[in-house]
Amino acid sequence: MTPLQRYIAEEIAADHADGLLNRRETLRRLGLLGFGIPAAAALLAACSTEPKDQPATSQPPSAATPSTPPGSSSALPAMPITFAGPGNRQLQGAWAEAAQPRGGVLVIHENKGLTDHIRSVTGRFAGAGYSALAVDLLSEKGGTASFTDPAQATAELSNTPQEQFIADLRAGLDELGRRVPGKKLGTTGFCFGGGLVWLLLVSGPSALAAATPFYGPFPDNGDLSASKAAVLGIYAAADTRVDATRQAAEDALNRAGTPHEMWVAPNADHAFFNDTGPRYAPAAATEAWRRVLDWYGTHLS
Q: What are the C-alpha distances in Å from 166 to residues 44, 202, 204?
């Protein structure tokens, strides 16, 4: 099992532990990942005993609780596009163009694929002045829209080689660079996509000037020495599973000597930015969005 496969399996088990999935559906989803009943039961038992509470380590959000998701009031339309990927493959994506782009942002989706929520975030970046591209990492399987069962889309992502993700994301960066010539590039990813942000950074030199991974697990023995990106890591105080990798990420950033900052959202859990999900925390999401735009304003504009 690869680290990404383990992460996806643990995320399903955590949803069960938090009461978001019943046992039958949880076992079905783990079965799609290749887990037999004994292995799935053992994983559920392990996740059900993990502590969920963690003291906040950051200042409380400065913004009042919003009535709409952050950035949505000024979001621009995200249009479907296709572009050339590695190995003569065609990649699908969502593209939102800022009127006068200050930079470009590669958006990396969660383990459900390129959803309406990720399209919305792509449009929000464009509304904030950053042309944005979200790559559908299920392009080779017909795209996210070809899956009627979201759990099957997650299983396909689990079975995709890590090297393919990196190659597709690098193709996305190339496409983004062509669409915003002369501008600096950043990347933002969420959950599974946050982990891919870290993997992209440790994969070697790239055009990235900045990155803002949201609650993404840092890879084992990750080396950031080849990266020049300024990193803002976003975490959640109650997300003990991913937060356990935060110190390793910070140590790697310190060794690399690149600008960085870690922010832990108090009173929030994993996936708190997703306004379509059950863990959405409006105040934390608003503060995170403000910090991301400030970070890109400093390192991309």
A: 30, 10, 10
For the chain, the residue count is 301
**C-alpha to C-alpha distance for 138 and 190, rounded to whole angstroms:** 16
Secondary structure string (H, E, C) spanning the chain: CCHHHHHHHHHHHHHHHCCCCCHHHHHHHHHHCCCCHHHHHHHHHHHHCCCCCCCCCCCCCCCCCCCCCCCHHHCCCCEEEEEECHHHCEEEEEEECCCCCCEEEEEECCCCCCCHHHHHHHHHHHHCCEEEEEECCCHHHCCHHHCCCHHHHHHHHHCCCHHHHHHHHHHHHHHHHHHCCCCCEEEEEECHHHHHHHHHHHCCCCCEEEEEEECCCCCCCCCCCCCCCEEEEEEECCCHHHHCCHHHHHHHHHHHCCCEEEEEECCCCCCCCCCCCCCCCHHHHHHHHHHHHHHHHHHCC
Q: What is the pLDDT along the chain (301 residues), one digit of tens a residue?
A: 788 888 999 999 999 998 999 999 999 999 999 989 888 888 888 887 655 444 333 334 344 455 699 999 999 999 999 999 998 899 999 999 999 999 999 999 999 999 999 999 999 999 999 999 999 999 999 999 999 999 999 999 999 999 999 999 999 999 999 999 999 999 999 999 999 999 999 999 999 999 999 999 999 999 999 999 999 999 999 999 999 999 999 999 999 999 999 999 999 999 999 999 999 999 999 999 999 999 999 999 8
